[in-house]
Amino acid sequence: MYEMCVGPDGAGETLVWHVMAKQATTTLCGRRLAERVEAPGAEQAEHCSPCMASFAKLMTAARP
Hints:
Layout: E1 2-8, E2 15-21, E3 46-47, H1 49-61
Parallel strand pairs: 2-3
Antiparallel strand pairs: 1-2
């Protein structure tokens, strides 16, 4: 199972939505999110492209 978590992008300047396995300590792009971020306007944040690409590969590989 995976969940979406908001956190800083690679440069640490902008918030983006990352994909993370429920019991993992790092996102699919390899970022460690120390704590959940509650940020105003986070709903409008972009998605992390590397996380989304990794997630797409996982979902495609799961198909028979």
